[in-house]
C-alpha cells in the first residue's frame, strides 16, 4: 500500500522507521528459537551435546581413547550398566528412587555365578532363575514403597544395607567355590565375550530392550500411566490409574533389568569380589540425572538414559586411563551428580518461565485509527441501547456459552466450559438438560442436513453429536506444514465452522502456537498463527485451506455457495474466500478497520449477515501492536496478569452485507446486560446471544424480520 493510497483510506502513512520495523519482524524468525526450545527433543539435545564435548575432550587428551577396541570395551560396560540405568530411569519417572541397585547388582551377579559355577546348572536354567531372583529383590522395594507407601529414599537405603550384608555373608562362604568352578559352556562364554560384526552381544540385547522400553513409555498405556503417576500421583489416582500396582511393577522391572546387567557382568568377569556394586548407585543415579531423567518424576526417556550412561562411562574410563584411584572417580561422579541435581531442580522450577519468555514473539501489527463509536458520530457505529431489553436464559445455570444454535423444534443449544452441550427446551427455555458430554470447551456449532450437530472443541478438534446423542470424533488433525518447527498437524483451537451444500465443513483454528487458555497471548503476539481448515464429509479427509491468519473466527458460507466469509479477530477485518467457481483460491476484504474484534458470523433472514464484536479496540493496544520490541520486553519482565491484552468487556452485534456495508448495530451501553458477545443466532424473529465469559444466553426480539426463519432449515431447503 503506497502512502497516497493509505492517506485516502484514512490510514496513517507508514514511515520508513515503521517499514523497517515491519520488515525486520516479518522476515526475521524470532519465534523459531522459542519453538525449538519448546520441543521435547531439546531436553535430549543438551545431554547429547555434553556427550560429544566429553568425547572430544577425552579423545584429545588421551591417545587412542576412541579406538575400535576401546569402543568395544566401552560398549560392553555401557550395556551392563545401561540395564541398571534403564531400571533406575523407570523408577525415577514414576516418581521414586532406588538406592539399592548396587547391592541388587552384586546379589544377582552372585546368583548367576553360584548357579553356573557351583551348582553347574545349564545356561537356559540359570538365566531365568537369576531374573526371577532380581524380580524378587525389586519386589521387596516395590511392595514396601508401592503398596505400603513407605518413603522411597529411606526404604531403598535400608534395603541397600540389607542386600549388601547378605551379599557379604554369601561371598564369605562361596567365593572360593565360585573361583574354582569355572563352567565349561560356550554359550556362557559367548554371553560375556561374544561379538557379531565387531559389536558385543550385550549391545544388541541392550538395543532390543531399549527399543521395547521406548515403545512402552511412548506408545503403550502402561507407559503413559507411569509418566502420569510421576507427574502427579494424586491426579493419576483420581483418574482411575492403579497407582500402587504400577509403582510396584516399576521396582520389580528395575530388579529384572539389574539382574540382566548382573548376568552379563558375571559371564564376562566371573568374579564375586567384595567391591562388586560398591558405589554403583551413585554411578547409575548420576547417569540418569545427567541424561535428563527428572528427580521430580514424570519426565524421562530411554534415549536420555542411554546418553547419560555413555557420558558417565566415558568420564570413568577417562579418569581410569589417567591412572586416578577409584576414590577420585567416585568423588568426581558425586560432584557431577550434585551439580546435575541442582541444575535439574532449577530447570524444572524455571523451565516454563524461561521457554515462555523466548517463545512469545510479538511482531509488527499496524491498524489504522479506529472509527468513532460516539453516540453523535453520525455513522452506523454510533453506540445505542438496543440490547438493553434482552432477556436472560439460564442465568447462573450455564457458564461460557460461546456459541448458541437452535434446531427446527426451537430447542436452544449452547456449549459449557464444563465440557457439556446444554439444551434448553422450547418454548420457554426454563427446562435445561445435558444434551451431550464431550469434554474440552465446545465452541462453534452447526447442523448438517441430517440434524447431526457438528461442534468445534477447543483443544480437541471437530466433533459430531448425532440426533441420538452419540458423540463421535470427526477430526483432530490436518496436513502437516513442513516449513513449521511446531507440529501443526494437531488442532489446538478449532473455534467456528459452517457446512456447504455438498458436505464440506470449513472451520477456523485460531492459533497453532498456543492453547485455548492462552488466546490472549496470541493477541499480544499478533503474528498470524491461525488458519482455515476443510473437512470433507464425503472422503473423510482434512486439509488446510488458508494459513497465517490473525486469530480467524466466524466462518459462514456465503449466499453463492462457492465462498465463505470469515473474521480475523486481531486484524479487525472480515474477508471472503472462494473455494469454488471462477474466483477459486482468491481472498477479498469485505469489512476493514472495525472498531472492535470480530467473532462469529451467521446468516440473517434477509440474506445479510449477523456478526458479533467480542470486544473493542483501545488506543493503548493499537499503539503497542506497532511496537513489537515493547511487547517483547513486557512479556519477559511483567507478570502475565499485568500484560496489555485485548479488551473483551464490551460487546456489539452488527448486521452487514456482502458489499461491506454496515446496516445496523446493536449495543449495550456500559455492558450491564451482556458485557461481551461472541456469537448470535437469528431464529423465528428473535436474536439469541452467546458469550464465552457470560453466565447466561441473551434473547431479544427483532422488528421487521421473517418470523419463520430457521437458519439451517433454510440452508437445506427444509423450510
Annotated CATH architecture of the largest domain: 6 Propeller
Could you report the average pLDDT, rounded to the nearest whole number?
91
Q: Describe the global form.
A: elongated
User: What portion of residues belong to β-strands?
Assistant: 15-25%
Point out poorly predicted stretches. Answer: 1-12
CATH topology-level fold name of the largest domain: Neuraminidase
**CA distance, first residue to last residue:** 46 Å
- Count of runs of 4 or more consecutive helical residues: 20
Helix content: 40-55%
CATH superfamily of the largest domain: TolB, C-terminal domain
Task: Let me know the largest β-sheet.
Answer: 4 strands, antiparallel
Rg to the nearest angstrom? 33 Å
Amino acid at each position: 500500500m503506497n502512502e497516497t493510497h493509505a492517506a485516502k483510506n484514512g490510514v496513517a502513512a507508514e514511515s520508513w522507521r515503521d517499514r523497517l520495523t515491519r520488515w525486520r519482524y516479518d522476515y526475521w524468525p524470532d519465534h523459531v528459537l522459542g519453538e525449538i526450545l519448546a520441543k521435547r527433543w531439546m531436553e535430549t539435545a543438551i545431554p547429547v551435546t555434553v556427550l560429544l564435548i566429553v568425547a572430544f575432550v577425552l579423545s584429545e587428551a588421551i591417545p587412542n581413547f576412541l579406538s575400535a577396541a576401546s569402543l568395544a570395551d566401552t560398549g560392553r560396560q555401557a550395556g551392563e550398566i545401561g540395564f541398571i540405568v534403564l531400571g533406575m530411569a523407570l523408577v525415577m519417572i514414576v516418581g521414586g528412587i532406588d538406592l539399592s541397585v548396587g547391592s541388587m547388582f552384586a546379589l544377582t551377579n552372585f546368583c548367576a555365578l553360584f548357579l553356573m559355577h557351583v551348582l553347574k546348572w545349564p545356561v537356559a536354567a540359570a538365566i531365568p532363575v537369576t531374573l526371577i531372583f532380581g524380580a524378587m529383590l525389586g519386589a521387596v522395594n516395590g511392595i514396601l514403597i508401592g503398596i505400603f507407601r513407605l518413603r522411597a529414599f529411606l526404604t531403598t537405603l535400608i534395603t541397600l544395607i540389607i542386600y549388601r550384608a547378605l551379599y557379604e555373608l554369601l561371598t564369605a562362604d562361596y567365593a572360593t567355590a565360585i573361583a574354582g568352578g569355572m563352567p565349561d559352556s560356550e554359550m556362557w562364554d559367548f554371553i560375556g565375550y561374544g561379538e557379531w560384526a565387531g559389536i558385543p552381544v550385550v549391545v544388541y540385547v541392550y538395543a532390543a530392550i531399549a527399543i521395547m522400553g521406548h515403545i512402552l513409555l511412548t506408545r503403550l498405556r502402561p507407559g503413559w500411566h507411569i509418566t502420569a503417576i510421576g507427574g502427579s500421583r494424586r491426579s493419576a489416582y483420581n483418574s482411575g490409574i492403579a497407582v500402587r500396582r504400577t509403582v510396584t511393577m516399576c521396582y520389580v522391572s528395575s530388579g529384572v533389568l539389574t539382574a540382566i546387567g548382573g548376568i552379563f557382568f558375571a559371564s564376562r568377569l566371573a568374579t564375586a569380589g567384595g567391591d562388586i556394586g560398591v558405589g554403583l548407585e551413585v554411578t547409575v543415579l548420576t547417569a540418569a540425572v545427567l541424561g535428563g531423567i527428572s528427580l521430580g518424576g514424570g519426565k524421562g526417556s530411554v534415549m536420555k538414559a542411554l546418553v547419560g550412561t555413555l557420558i558417565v562411562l566415558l568420564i570413568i574410563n577417562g579418569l581410569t586411563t589417567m591412572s586416578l584411584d577409584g576414590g577420585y572417580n567416585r568423588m568426581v561422579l558425586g560432584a557431577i551428580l550434585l551439580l546435575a541435581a541442582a541444575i535439574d531442580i532449577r530447570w524444572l522450577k524455571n523451565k516454563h518461565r524461561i521457554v515462555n519468555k523466548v517463545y512469545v514473539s510479538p511482531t509488527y501489527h499496524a491498524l489504522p485509527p479506529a472509527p468513532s463509536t460516539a453516540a453523535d458520530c453520525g455513522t452506523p457505529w454510533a453506540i445505542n441501547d438496543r440490547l438493553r431489553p434482552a432477556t436472560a436464559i439460564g442465568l447462573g445455570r450455564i457458564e461460557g456459552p460461546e456459541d448458541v444454535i437452535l434446531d427446527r423444534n426451537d430447542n436452544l443449544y449452547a456449549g459449557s466450559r464444563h465440557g457439556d452441550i446444554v439444551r434448553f427446551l422450547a418454548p420457554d427455555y426454563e427446562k435445561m438438560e445435558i444434551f451431550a458430554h464431550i469434554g474440552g470447551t465446545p465452541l462453534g456449532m452447526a447442523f448438517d442436513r441430517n440434524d447431526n450437530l457438528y461442534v468445534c472443541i477447543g483443544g480437541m478438534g471437530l466433533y459430531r453429536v448425532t440426533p441420538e446423542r452419540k458423540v463421535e470424533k470427526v477430526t483432530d488433525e490436518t496436513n502437516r506444514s513442513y516449513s513449521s518447527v511446531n507440529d501443526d498437524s494437531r488442532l489446538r483451537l478449532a473455534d467456528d465452522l459452517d457446512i456447504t451444500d455438498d458436505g464440506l465443513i470449513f472451520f477456523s483454528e485460531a492459533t497453532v502456537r498456543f492453547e485455548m487458555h492462552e488466546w490472549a497471548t496470541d493477541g499480544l503476539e499478533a503474528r498470524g498463527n491461525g488458519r482455515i481448515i476443510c473437512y470433507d464429509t464425503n472422503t473423510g479427509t482434512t486439509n488446510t485451506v488458508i494459513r497465517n491468519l490473525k486469530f480467524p473466527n466466524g466462518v459462514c458460507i456465503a449466499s453463492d455457495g462457492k465462498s465463505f466469509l470469515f473474521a480475523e479477530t486481531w486484524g479487525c477485518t472480515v474477508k471472503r474466500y472462494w473455494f469454488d467457481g471462477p474466483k477459486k483460491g482468491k481472498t477479498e476484504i469485505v469489512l476493514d478497520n472495525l472498531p472492535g474484534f470480530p467473532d462469529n458470523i451467521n446468516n440473517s433472514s434477509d440474506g445479510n449477515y449477523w456478526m458479533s464484536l467480542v470486544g473493542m479496540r483501545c488506543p493503548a493496544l493499537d499503539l503497542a501492536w506497532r511496537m513489537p520490541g515493547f511487547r517483547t520486553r513486557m512479556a519477559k519482565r511483567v507478570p502475565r496478569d499485568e500484560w496489555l491484552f485485548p479488551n473483551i468487556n464490551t460487546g456489539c452485534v452488527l448486521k452487514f452485507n456482502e458489499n461491506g456495508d454496515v446496516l445496523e448495530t446493536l449495543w449495550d451501553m456500559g455492558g450491564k446486560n451482556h458485557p461481551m458477545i461472541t456469537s448470535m443466532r437469528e431464529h423465528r424473529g428473535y436474536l439469541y446471544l452467546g458469550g464465552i465469559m457470560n453466565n447466561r444466553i441473551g434473547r431479544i426480539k427483532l422488528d421487521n424480520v421473517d418470523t419463520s426463519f430457521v437458519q439451517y432449515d433454510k440452508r437445506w431447503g427444509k423450510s
